[in-house]
Design a protein that fits this description.
By secondary structure, the chain is an alpha+beta fold. The strands form three sheets. It has a five-stranded antiparallel beta sheet. Strands 7-9-10-12-11 form a five-stranded mixed beta sheet, covered by helices on one side. A hairpin with a 7-residue loop joins strand 11 and strand 12. Helix 5 runs antiparallel to helix 6. The chain is rod-shaped.
């Protein structure tokens, strides 16, 4: 407030010098109306006194310190200006003087420099002194060369017109001054709030543990917070003005702004993982002004993930071992019992043949378990090449129709029009379809319908196996792909696990839907069209 008032008082002094130089000196230099002055010598002294007053004002201004002193000094200057204007009007003919317009300038100056009240004070002073001057001129107490040219009505109308103009200017300038004052205060408050918000946001950014950088529209780094400097071991001066790709080589220059990207960065001769999210940086109007990147050092997170995966792996191995032991123990127990009874040689030939059949059946069961487990556990080398997906499905359908598991009342409907070529290992994909087809037949073995069809999208194809059989309990849906999990009396529980593993190796996935027991089930094998 103090500095603002001081600037206004300085501007008032400068403005006065400009007015005196342009108006009064030009009148004196170019002799425009100068010969009509009643006291030309007094006019010269008048101009000199104004310049002298300006020097005095400048000297006094250096000693003023408080707001009250500045306000009082501004009042004194404007009052002296009004007196000087009255003197100028008297010297230049009184009622016929062309300098009456200087009063509104002083009134405007009081509104700009001081306040609304000062406008009315100066308007009142100007009206009083101007009316007094013209009244003295009318009464012949002071005389000018214009006295014989104007009547009494001219004097009264001139006084009325000027007083009206003075107060009108005072009202308008006071109103505008008040508005300007309020707008200035509002702007100051907003600037303060914005400064606080900016500082607060900077504190937040600097306090965040994640590295943050921003760029301009030319993709040049503008800011680089403290965490970013600590993570990369680069100073702010080292990165400002360069592109993010120069600092983070794993970012592609020709790639559009990614939502999430991971890469590795070198620091002190060692590389470490970085996770980064980049998005557009916008202003308050929503217009893009650059990009903002938020990144973290993933070293500890990757170590934790590796530890979790290691523990999950050992837990899975433990559960898998227990499941294998359980699956092997049952046929081994039957096999052992049969062999022991045959060794005692106390059974009839017919009973011995029956026990031999049981032993062979259990051996086949053991062999099936081992075969399925090896198919699930052993990595299979994929023979990737284009093949007709529909033809593979038709081959599987032929086997399903002739399967011993298929009941007489089971209906298999298909919709496989034309050819549909994808890339993959046709033999292993057929294994997926076979396993899902057998599951569907088992679900509707007492009679029901199975629908098999494909749906093609832009980047993938869905192979759908839908049935209206026994369905899947909602609590079991999350476990059906787990090895050795089964709800069947016979079966190893590896069919769906093998199907899921093969599908994932081809870059796809299996989605299962079921509303519950007795509500049927739908299995969707989703495979990419351009799998390489």
């Amino acid at each position: 407030m103090h500095k603002d008032l001081a600037k206004k008082v300085n501007a008032l002094i400068f403005f006065r010098v400009v007015v005196v130089t342009v108006l009064l000196d030009s009148l004196y230099i170019f002799k425009i109306g100068y010969d009509k002055l009643s006291h030309p010598e007094a006019f010269s002294y008048f101009i000199a006194s104004l310049y002298l007053l300006t020097i005095v004002y400048a000297l006094v201004l250096r000693r003023i310190k408080t707001n009250f002193q500045f306000t009082f000094f501004a009042y004194i200057q404007i009052v002296i200006d009004i007196i000087a204007e009255i003197a100028l009007i008297y010297l230049t003919g009184g009622i016929e003087s062309m300098f009456a317009f200087l009063f509104p300038l002083s009134i405007l100056a009081s509104g700009i420099v001081l306040n609304r009240r000062a406008c009315f004070v100066i308007a009142t002073l100007s009206s009083s002194l101007y009316a007094l001057l013209l009244s003295l001129q009318l009464c012949k107490i002071i005389t000018t060369s214009a006295d014989v040219l104007y009547t009494e009505k001219d004097f009264f109308y001139n006084i009325f017109a000027h007083i009206t103009a003075f107060y009108l200017v005072g009202y308008l300038s006071g109103y505008l001054s008040e508005k300007l004052h309020r707008a200035t205060l509002s702007l100051v408050e907003r600037d303060t709030v914005l400064s606080d918000l900016k500082a607060f946001s900077e504190y937040i950014i600097e306090s965040m543990p994640s590295g943050i950088f921003t760029t301009d529209l030319n993709n040049r780094i503008v800011s680089f917070n403290t965490a970013a400097q600590e993570i990369t071991k680069l100073r702010h001066a080292d990165v400002v003005g360069v592109t993010p790709e120069d600092v983070f080589p794993f970012l592609s220059r020709n790639q559009h702004t990614p939502e999430r990207v991971e890469g590795r960065l070198q620091r002190n001769g060692e590389t470490f993982p970085i996770g980064m999210r980049i998005s557009k940086l916008k202003d308050g109007s929503g217009n893009p002004i650059g990009k903002i990147g938020v990144f973290q050092d993933l070293t500890e997170l990757k170590a934790m993930e590796a530890e979790v995966k290691r523990k999950e792996k050992w837990a899975f191995i433990g559960e898998l071992s227990a499941s294998i032991a359980h699956e092997l123990r049952n046929p081994l127990a039957s096999l052992k019992g049969s062999v022991e009874m045959l060794r005692e040689n106390k059974v009839s030939q017919e009973h011995a043949d029956h026990l031999m059949k049981i032993a062979l059946s259990e051996m086949d069961r053991l062999n099936g378990i081992i075969t399925d487990f090896l198919l699930y556990a052993r990595p299979q080398e994929l023979d990737i090449k284009p093949f007709d997906l529909h033809q593979s499905l038709k081959n599987v359908l032929t086997l399903l129709h002739s399967s011993e598991s298929k009941g007489e009342n089971v209906t298999i409907s298909t919709k496989l029009d034309g050819s549909l070529f994808i890339k993959g290992d046709s033999r292993q994909i057929q294994q997926v379809f076979w396993n899902l087809g057998l599951n569907a037949i088992d679900a509707v073995h007492d009679g029901g319908d199975i629908d098999i069809y494909t749906r093609k999208s832009k980047n993938a194809v869905e192979v759908v196996f839908s049935d209206n059989g026994t369905g899947i309990n909602k609590s079991d849906i999350d476990n059906i792909f787990y090895p050795f999990f089964t709800t069947k009396e016979k079966g190893t529980g590896l069919g769906l696990s093998i199907a899921q593993k093969i599908t994932e190796e081809h870059g796809g996935k299996i989605v299962v839907e079921s509303k519950g027991t007795g509500m049927g089930a739908t299995f969707k094998v989703i495979l990419p069209l351009n799998n390489s």
